[in-house]
Structures are given as C-alpha cells and as structure tokens.
Write a structure and sequence with these properties.
The chain is about 75% helix and about 0% strand. About 5% of the residues have low confidence.
Length: about 190
C-alpha cells in the first residue's frame, strides 16, 4: 500500500520538522556548548552566549506568533539561522575580551576595548543581514516572505541582546581588583 496526496505530504513534512526540532537542534546545541567551553573555558561565557541566543530566538518566535505567521518547513529553520547570527555577535565580543586579557588588560579594560572595537562592525553586519532577510518579504511565496520578516527582526534582537544585555552582565561579572600590566587602548576600525 502506498500513500499519496496532500495529506501524506503534510504528514511527512511535519515529521521532518519534528525530527529537526527534537533531534538536530539539540545536537547542534551540544556541539556549540563544547566549542564555547573549549574556546573560553568559562561557564559564564557559555551561559552568556546561550542567554543571548535564546533570548533572541524567543523574541523572534514571539513576533512570529504575534504576527500570526504559520510554523512550516520554511520557518522551521529560523531558529538555526538566528542561532548562527547571535553566536557570531557574542563570539566577537567574547573573543576580543579573551585576546585583550591575554595581552595583560584587566577584565574591565578588555570589555571596554571589545565593545569599542566590535560595536560598529557587528552593527553593520547585523543591519545588512537584517536588510537582506527583509528583502525576502517581497517574495511571492508567503512562507519565504514570513521567514524574511521574522529572521530580520531576530537578527536585530540578537545584536541588541549582545550589546545591551550581555555587555552589562559582563560588566557586573568583572572583578575590579586586577591592575593592567599592558594597556590595550581601543582602536577604531574605521582607520
């Protein structure tokens, strides 16, 4: 017996989406956790990275629901797309902090240098990425148009979460006892 028709197709698509959400996404998160731990060796860095990622994804999915957009095979990849962009933003911030600390800066100096050096470049990247996804809204295929609107909102939320949530949390976590051995003066990326 063979099944065919739109009911069978919809059922198979729902099974694929369920498999992606319940199997592949957790595997991806486990891999990223190990990678973040390997790179930074701090549970706080892993926690802050995930707080940026999950807050951005939750805001994006909330907007998707508020706007009444359907959850389909196209929109099921929104979380994976946003995971990548949000991680890129926070990894830029954390990597510069680690680099500056290795050069002898205090945690606070490293954070200030990281924010100063990464603020505009990551803003421009996030802004142009959001514009790129927003252009999907002109597509005649409704699921692709919805994906563009939702992901463009999520990309902006990821950038805002990185600099207006993660950076202040990092300030709170910094110790003010260490003195700088080497000055890591902020440099403009526009020079």
């Amino acid at each position: 017996i063979y099944m065919s028709g739109s009911a069978s197709l919809v059922s198979n698509i729902q099974a694929v989406i369920t498999n992606d959400v319940t199997v592949l996404f957790p595997v991806l998160l486990i891999f990223i956790t190990f990678l973040l731990w390997y790179l930074y060796r701090k549970i706080s860095s892993v926690g802050i990275a995930y707080s940026v990622v999950f807050s951005s994804i939750l805001l994006m999915l909330g907007v998707q629901g508020i706007l009444g957009f359907s959850f389909n095979i196209i929109s099921s990849i929104c979380s994976q797309i946003l995971l990548t962009v949000a991680l890129a933003d926070i990894i830029h911030l954390l990597s510069h902090i680690k680099f500056a600390e290795e050069k002898g800066a205090t945690k606070r100096e490293a954070l200030e240098s990281s924010v100063f050096n990464n603020f505009y470049p990551t803003f421009l990247t996030s802004f142009t990425t959001a514009i790129g996804f927003a252009t999907f809204s002109t597509a005649k295929a409704i699921p692709i148009a919805e994906l563009g609107i939702v992901v463009s909102f999520g990309v902006i939320c990821a950038w805002i979460s990185t600099y207006f949530f993660a950076a202040p949390v990092l300030v709170l976590l910094t110790s003010k006892n260490k003195k700088s051995r080497v000055s890591v003066a902020p440099k403009s990326n526009l020079d």
